[in-house]
């Protein structure tokens, strides 16, 4: 199947007074139609910047330096202003972490949805309002005919996020980017919103890029996950594979203390000793080397950045410890054994301890 | 701390421009009488001489034949004096009201804020006009009146600073050490609340100078003192024929107001860096 | 929605109008204090220099102020008179103070509204341009313009405008509100008034124009980083649309707050501008009363203008609440 979205070698750097912060550095991944990809990482790992780069919503002093963002085969980075505007909100839509601040406080919810519709569809105001009500109903907002005239501050947090989803769905996008959509909500509402996203995805068949630092959300919602660390994707694969047989010591560290079976929504990433290197002064070698128990004594880790290479079907890792086995790939189980031999989970647990 | 602050201030473009302009005006005010001695009220030449027409009166003469340059030097002195002293008065009143209200809160605060609101509602310049007119125009009444009408913003600012600062740990610590209210206010809280007050004071000086000029322009200036507003007021009947009589002191006002606004802006950048634009 | 907000506005006005009472009381108290502290007898002060007023007028003043009574009683008299809107009689103008003020009020309101409209509109336009092209040539030019206009004394600017636009260029009239002697009707009258309004209104507007430009620029720049602007951009809205419908719409809120805070100062500015352009309003009346040393009239103007600021402030609050749905009236 052709990729819905393929990001290749994306670099988004921030040119601050203190120097160049390489927030996103050579990031590549792809999303298939109808698929959910979770982009996981700690805050500052570059996951949100990656998401905003897709629709070119990066503000000064940030700049997309290199790479391709192929959406249905078209490079979004090559489009002119008008071209990218016709994609935004129409083919690719976004929802945000804070639904209250993401709505214009002085316009009704309905007016803001209507704006999203009428920016891309030639329909009258009345028809657009009708459509807005349908959308509100679709996302499970009770008495939409009344809510459509409500101002954002009058809705509860959960209702606001539902309205935000309605706004994003206004033009039935092919890809929905959700930037920490449940972080600002309480646990029960989180589960409802995730359920809603899943069911809407099943209805529309849209791709979903889910930005989160919440492993519970990943386990519950995503088909595949890409783990980001210090501006790079360090591991990518099916959620099932990643959670049971993580290759990269960072992923392993993240998962070690949490068992996948008892990951409730809202579970935060556990702490790993040490700190993320400053994006301004990136080490020459692997960014994780300083915190990695395997890097000590291994010159390669400190001198060169590991390449991002496949270790199995649909499983790629950037680590020297993992044998960069070329295709044809190993059998899935064999891969698991091989990985287990290289990186026993009890060792990964020590990363955390 | 202070030399470092001064250094940073000198590196700020606004502040530096302001300080240079201010230095020029101060030179004129303090050393001006060396070049232009004599009483600004003396009629020394032909009336309405244009600037440059007669080297004896380089900036010309007014409708009564008084030397413009001498008048402008006298005006610089008056403007600076009234601007600085009235701002001092307004700062003292504003700090007192704001500090007491913010520190004690409760009914004291409520009462002081009502008074502050009242003084904010009254059109400030109209009140200044009433005060100066009724208490007889003089440098003292003008200074006092300008000070009395311009303190409310300072009071509000100091109050909000105090409301924040009084909850801070070092204040609580000082309180548990048994420090009295007076010492707590003066030695602990006030020094920390001062930076924004200094900024607002610099801007207040600019406003005060404009107010003084406006009062003298309306004929409410000290009858024995030649200020820029007085010169403009006297020249206004002939403004069409000899616009320089009103024009020159006006330019002087613009320069000094510009100086203090720029200085205030620069102080704001250096003292409250978190408020700086991106 | 707008429809069901109208009764709310009416209720709000009814509630807020009572705020005028403490203001009147406060100013009356202040006026009384000023009179007591002023050098000389209160009647002498009020009537101006001795000899100008007739003995009958002095006696009438004495009686109405209860001047032979103890101080608290005098205060009660003063407050009672003020509460009944009895601002006294202007001997010089031979008319009750209140009537004099009310006659001059429309002209001042016209000047204030014209100047404010001008300042708000141009302040918004310049502020938007400045924010949209921040740190570029247009922004720098606007910044310099703002800096200079901020420093221009209103009355001096008025005088210079007369020299240039009335005397040299002969484009616009320099004094009064209408041409003296011309008996115009209908549209021609309005045109005449409009021509006379231009220079005074622009002179008064300049300072506030600078303030509003700066304010709108700062607010817009702040909003350009806001989450809802990012949402609008993610929807596919054009930069122009984002600027006008999202950022500016929200930047109008701090603008209204500032406008409300400055009403008193605008009225003060009107006093000066009116005396420059012989505009027949309250400011001109104040100027005349200074010249005539008619302090009773002057105190009346102070009281009345404060009340006017309070009332205008209530209207500004209503406009603010209409602009910001988060405010409950």
UniProtKB/TrEMBL annotation, chain A:
Q: Which residues form the ABC transporter domain?
A: 7-255
Keyword Hydrolase applies:
no
GO molecular-function annotation terms? ATP binding; ATP hydrolysis activity
Magnesium keyword on record: no
Which species is listed as the source?
Pseudothauera rhizosphaerae
Tell me the protein's name. ABC transporter ATP-binding protein
Classification via InterPro entries: AAA+_ATPase (IPR003593), ABC_Ni/Peptide_Import (IPR050388), ABC_transporter-like_ATP-bd (IPR003439), ABC_transporter-like_CS (IPR017871), Oligopep_ABC_C (IPR013563), P-loop_NTPase (IPR027417)
Q: Which superkingdom, per the lineage?
A: Bacteria
Keywords, alphabetical: ATP-binding, Cell membrane, Membrane, Nucleotide-binding, Transport
Q: Name one GO cellular component term.
A: plasma membrane
TrEMBL record, chain B:
CDD domains in the cross-refs: TM_PBP2
Q: Where are the transmembrane segments?
A: 15-36, 78-104, 125-151, 242-263
Residues annotated as domain ABC transmembrane type-1: 76-264
What are the recorded Gene Ontology BP terms?
transmembrane transport
* Keywords for this protein: Cell membrane, Membrane, Transmembrane, Transmembrane helix, Transport
Q: Which Pfam families match?
A: BPD_transp_1 (PF00528)
Q: Which InterPro entries match?
A: BP-dependent_transpt_permease, MetI-like, MetI-like_sf
* Membrane topology, as annotated: Multi-pass membrane protein
Q: What is its main location?
A: membrane
Provide the protein's localization.
Answer: Cell membrane
Give the SUPFAM superfamilies listed for this entry: MetI-like
The reply to whether Ribonucleoprotein figures as a keyword in the UniProt entry is no
- Give an example GO cellular component term for this record: plasma membrane
Which protein are we looking at?
ABC transporter permease
What organism, scientifically named, is this protein from? Pseudothauera rhizosphaerae
TrEMBL record, chain C:
GO BP field: transmembrane transport
What PANTHER family does this protein map onto?
A: ABC TRANSPORTER PERMEASE PROTEIN, DIPEPTIDE TRANSPORT SYSTEM PERMEASE PROTEIN DPPB-RELATED
Q: Does the keyword Transmembrane helix apply?
A: yes
Query: What's its membrane topology?
Result: Multi-pass membrane protein
Q: Where is this gene product found?
A: Cell membrane
At the top level of its lineage, which domain of life is listed?
Bacteria
Q: Which UniProt keywords apply?
A: Cell membrane, Membrane, Transmembrane, Transmembrane helix, Transport
Sorted alphabetically, which SUPFAM superfamilies does this protein's record hold?
A: MetI-like
* Family under the similarity heading: Belongs to the binding-protein-dependent transport system permease family.
The record places domain ABC transmembrane type-1 at 105-320
Q: Which GO terms describe its cellular component?
A: plasma membrane
This chain belongs to which protein, by name?
ABC transporter permease
Q: Does the keyword Transmembrane helix apply?
A: yes
Q: Which sequence ranges are marked TM in the entry? A: 20-38, 105-129, 141-167, 193-211, 251-277, 297-323
């Amino acid at each position: 199947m052709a990729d819905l979205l393929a990001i290749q070698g994306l670099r988004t750097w921030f040119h601050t007074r203190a120097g160049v912060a390489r927030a996103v550095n050579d990031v590549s991944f792809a999303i298939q139609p109808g698929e959910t990809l979770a982009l996981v990482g700690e805050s500052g790992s570059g996951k949100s910047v990656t998401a905003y780069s897709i629709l070119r919503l990066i503000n000064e002093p940030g700049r997309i330096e290199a790479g391709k963002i192929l959406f249905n085969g078209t490079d979004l980075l090559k489009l002119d202003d008008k071209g990218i505007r016709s994609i935004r909100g129409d083919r690719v839509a976004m929802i945000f972490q804070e639904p209250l601040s993401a709505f214009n406080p002085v316009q009704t919810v309905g007016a803001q949805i209507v704006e999203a519709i009428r920016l891309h569809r030639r329909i009258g105001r009345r028809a657009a309002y009708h459509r807005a009500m349908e959308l509100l109903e679709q996302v499970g907002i009770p008495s939409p005919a009344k809510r459509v005239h409500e101002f954002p501050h009058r809705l509860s947090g959960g209702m606001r996020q539902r309205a935000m989803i309605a706004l994003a769905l206004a033009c039935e996008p092919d890809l929905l980017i959700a930037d920490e959509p449940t972080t600002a909500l309480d646990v029960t509402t989180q589960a409802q919103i995730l359920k809603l996203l899943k069911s809407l995805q099943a209805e529309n068949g849209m791709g979903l890029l889910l930005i989160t630092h919440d492993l519970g959300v990943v386990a519950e919602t995503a088909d595949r996950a890409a783990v980001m660390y210090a501006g790079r994707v360090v591991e990518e694969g099916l959620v099932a594979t990643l959670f049971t047989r993580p290759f990269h010591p960072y992923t392993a560290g993240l998962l070690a203390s949490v068992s996948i079976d008892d990951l409730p929504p809202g579970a935060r990433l556990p702490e790993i000793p040490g700190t993320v290197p400053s994006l301004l002064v990136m080490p020459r070698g692997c960014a994780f080397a300083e915190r990695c128990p395997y890097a000590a004594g291994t010159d390669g880790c400190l001198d060169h950045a590991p390449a991002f290479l496949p270790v199995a079907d649909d499983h790629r890792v950037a680590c020297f410890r993992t044998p960069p086995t070329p295709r044809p790939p190993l059998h899935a189980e064999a891969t698991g054994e091989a990985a287990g031999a290289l990186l026993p989970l009890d060792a990964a647990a020590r990363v955390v301890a | 701390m202070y030399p470092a602050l001064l250094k940073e201030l000198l590196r700020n473009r606004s502040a530096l421009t302001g300080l240079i302009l201010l230095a020029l005006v101060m030179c004129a005010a303090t050393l001006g009488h060396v070049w232009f001695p004599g009483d600004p009220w003396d009629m020394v030449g032909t009336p309405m001489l244009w600037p440059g027409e007669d080297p004896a009166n380089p900036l010309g003469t007014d409708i009564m034949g008084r030397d413009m340059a001498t008048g402008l030097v006298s005006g610089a002195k008056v403007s600076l004096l009234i601007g600085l002293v009235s701002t001092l008065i307004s700062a003292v009143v504003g700090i007192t009201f704001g500090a007491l209200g913010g520190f004690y809160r409760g009914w004291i605060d409520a009462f002081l804020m009502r008074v502050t609101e009242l003084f904010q509602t009254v059109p400030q310049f109209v009140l200044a006009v009433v005060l100066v007119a009724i208490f007889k125009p003089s440098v003292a009444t003008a200074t006092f009146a300008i000070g009395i009408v311009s303190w409310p913003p300072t009071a509000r600012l100091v109050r909000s600073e105090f409301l924040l600062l009084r909850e801070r740990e070092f204040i609580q610590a000082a309180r548990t050490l048994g420090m009295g209210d007076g010492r707590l206010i003066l030695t602990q809280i006030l020094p920390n609340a001062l930076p924004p007050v200094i900024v607002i004071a610099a801007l207040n000086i600019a406003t005060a100078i404009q107010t003084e000029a406006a009062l003298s322009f309306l004929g409410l200036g000290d009858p024995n003192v030649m200020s820029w507003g007085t010169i403009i007021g006297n020249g206004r009947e002939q403004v069409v024929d000899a616009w320089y009589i009103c024009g020159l002191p006006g330019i002087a006002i613009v320069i000094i107001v510009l100086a203090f606004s720029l200085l205030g802006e620069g102080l704001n950048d250096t003292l409250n860096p978190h408020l700086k634009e991106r | 929605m707008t429809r069901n907000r109208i009764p709310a506005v009416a209720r709000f006005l009814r509630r807020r109008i009572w705020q005028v009472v403490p203001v009147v009381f406060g100013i009356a108290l202040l006026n009384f204090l000023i009179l007591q502290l002023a050098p000389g007898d209160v009647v002498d002060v009020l009537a101006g220099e001795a000899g100008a007023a007739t003995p009958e007028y002095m006696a009438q003043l004495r009686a109405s102020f209860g001047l032979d009574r103890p101080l608290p009683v005098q205060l009660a008299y003063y407050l009672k008179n003020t509460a009944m809107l009895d601002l006294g009689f202007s001997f010089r103008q031979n008319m009750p103070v209140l009537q004099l003020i009310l006659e001059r009020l429309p002209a001042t309101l016209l000047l204030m509204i014209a100047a404010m409209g001008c300042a708000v509109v141009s302040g918004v336009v310049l502020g938007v341009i400045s924010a949209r092209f921040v740190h570029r040539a247009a922004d720098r030019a606007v910044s310099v313009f703002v800096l200079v206009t901020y420093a221009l004394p209103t009355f001096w600017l008025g005088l210079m405008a007369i020299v240039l636009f009335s005397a040299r260029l002969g484009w616009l009239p320099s004094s009064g509100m209408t041409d003296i002697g011309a008996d115009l009707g209908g549209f021609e009258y309005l045109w005449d008034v409009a021509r006379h309004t231009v220079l005074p209104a622009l002179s008064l507007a300049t300072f506030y124009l600078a303030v509003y430009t700066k304010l709108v620029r700062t607010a817009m720049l702040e909003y350009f980083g806001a989450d809802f602007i990012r949402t609008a951009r993610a929807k596919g809205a054009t930069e122009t649309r984002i600027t006008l419908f999202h950022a500016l719409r929200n930047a109008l809120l701090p603008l209204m707050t500032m406008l409300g805070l400055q009403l008193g100062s605008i009225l003060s500015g009107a006093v000066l501008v009116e005396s420059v352009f012989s505009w027949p309003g309250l400011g001109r009346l104040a100027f005349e009363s200074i010249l005539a040393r008619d302090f009773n009239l002057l105190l009346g103007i102070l009281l009345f203008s404060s009340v006017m600021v309070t009332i205008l402030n209530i209207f500004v609050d209503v406009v603010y609440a209409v602009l910001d749905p988060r405010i409950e009236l």
